[in-house]
């Protein structure tokens, strides 16, 4: 059965973790995967999470199966966070939300649903995009193409190219859009550009799918999620996948969600029934712990305020690392202007380094980033940044 099975390539992001873990270089630094580490290089356990867990343990509950769509209070908390508790879609009950296994799980459930209701469509992702977007939608059975997004020569957006591609896309095309903190480039479009994108998507009858994995890492929770209200105002159906991996530092708990904004409550009920089939036939129903932690934090005003503060601190530290990176690259002898790093937002910097340079960084210096030149600024700290900058200076 398996004699002709070929060895698959390593995952371009998580595969780097495997390589990093076996690297014996004592100076190694993992800037590959999008994970936030504190200034001591430690994965944080947020205080809001710890306190929610303590609260949960005061009245421990047995672990029965969850409903297929997850914890009701969690789904409601996600809807409130993403759309606003007082928003018309939430108040009228026209958002179908399901708990999902991380943001990736939300994307996959959405992709599977779309394949069922829109089987002949193609999917457009940004060029470049998170590597797993292409793989995930391809795996769900869609042809995947790209719309222009980043102009390497200009070190910025190719917004005209993006808009033109959307204006030419056939009706029904699924368009994957990064709601904030574009992964991998760190360049977001402006509010005015969003208006143009939304108008194009609506005029061409495309299907918008927002990936919101980094809410709170750009300018703030509300600011980063502002595009959702714009889509609501445009009156279209749209998808939003949410991840709490990064914003709650709950990577291994796989806490995410998929929300589908429908025309009315009846439609949302029918969509939810189909989403439940996708979930049931994949993994039956989600796990309890992570979802319960997030629901507890979001549902307890004091813990929610603490979460916002802790997320704000993470956002601030990343910004400081961006400034330090620019300064220290200069000090390490890098001649070219690296100031663009401070214009990028979110966890990543698209460094502009070539694949060869990234491979050298990894093999000669133990500094891991993706082959595309993406580096996770959120994994830099006051102890490893000098070494990283000196290493980069040597390969540039
Ligand atoms: C990343 O882009 O590094 C993260 O979203 C983690 C992942 O699953 O790829």
Automatic annotation (TrEMBL):
SUPFAM superfamilies: PLP-dependent transferases. One of its GO terms (molecular function) is identical protein binding. Keywords: Aminotransferase, Pyridoxal phosphate, Transferase. GO terms for biological process: L-phenylalanine biosynthetic process from chorismate via phenylpyruvate. One of its GO terms (cellular component) is cytosol. It is an enzyme of class 2 (transferase). InterPro entries: Aminotransferase_I/II_large (IPR004839), Asp_trans (IPR000796), NHTrfase_class1_PyrdxlP-BS (IPR004838), PyrdxlP-dep_Trfase (IPR015424), PyrdxlP-dep_Trfase_major (IPR015421), PyrdxlP-dep_Trfase_small (IPR015422). Its EC number is 2.6.1.-. The keyword Transferase applies. Its cofactor is pyridoxal 5'-phosphate. It comes from the Bacteria. Residues 27-392 form the Aminotransferase class I/classII large domain. Homodimer. Belongs to the class-I pyridoxal-phosphate-dependent aminotransferase family. This is Aminotransferase. It comes from Ramlibacter tataouinensis (strain ATCC BAA-407 / DSM 14655 / LMG 21543 / TTB310). The lineage of its organism: Bacteria, Pseudomonadati, Pseudomonadota, Betaproteobacteria, Burkholderiales.
């Amino acid at each position: 059965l398996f004699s002709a099975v070929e060895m698959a390539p390593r995952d371009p992001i998580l595969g780097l973790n495997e390589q990093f873990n076996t690297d014996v270089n004592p100076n190694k630094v993992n800037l590959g995967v999008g994970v936030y580490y504190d200034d001591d290089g430690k994965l944080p356990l947020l205080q809001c999470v710890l306190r929610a867990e303590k609260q949960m343990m005061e009245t421990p509950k047995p672990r029965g199966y969850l409903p297929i769509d997850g914890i009701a209070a969690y789904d409601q908390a996600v809807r409130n966070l993403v759309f606003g508790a007082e928003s018309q879609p939430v108040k009228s009950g026209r958002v179908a939300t399901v708990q999902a296994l991380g943001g990736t799980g939300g994307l996959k459930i959405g992709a599977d649903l779309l394949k069922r209701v829109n089987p002949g469509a193609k999917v457009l992702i940004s060029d470049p995009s998170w590597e797993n977007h292409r793989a995930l939608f391809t795996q769900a059975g869609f042809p995947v193409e790209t719309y222009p997004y980043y102009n390497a020569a200009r070190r910025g957006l190719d917004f005209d190219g993006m808009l033109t591609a959307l204006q030419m896309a056939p009706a029904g095309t699924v368009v994957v859009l990064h709601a904030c903190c574009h992964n991998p480039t760190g360049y977001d479009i402006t509010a005015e550009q969003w208006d143009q994108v939304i108008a194009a998507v609506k005029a061409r009858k495309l299907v918008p799918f927002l990936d919101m994995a980094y809410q709170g890492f750009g300018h703030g929770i509300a600011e980063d999620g502002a595009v959702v209200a714009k889509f609501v105002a445009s009156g279209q159906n749209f998808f939003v996948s949410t991840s709490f991996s990064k914003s709650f530092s709950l990577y291994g708990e796989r806490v995410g969600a998929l929300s589908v904004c429908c025309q009315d409550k009846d439609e949302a009920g029918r969509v939810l029934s189909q989403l439940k089939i996708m979930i049931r036939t994949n993994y039956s129903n989600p796990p309890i712990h992570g979802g319960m932690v997030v629901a507890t934090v979001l549902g307890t005003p004091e813990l929610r305020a603490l979460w916002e503060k802790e997320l704000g601190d993470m956002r601030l530290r990343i910004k400081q690392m961006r400034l330090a990176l620019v300064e220290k690259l200069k000090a390490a002898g890098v001649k070219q202007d690296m100031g663009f790093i401070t214009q990028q937002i979110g966890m990543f910097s698209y460094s502009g380094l070539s694949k060869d340079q990234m491979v050298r960084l990894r093999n000669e210096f133990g500094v891991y980033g993706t082959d595309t030149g993406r580096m996770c600024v959120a994994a830099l700290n006051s102890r490893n940044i000098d070494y990283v900058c000196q290493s980069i200076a040597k390969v540039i």
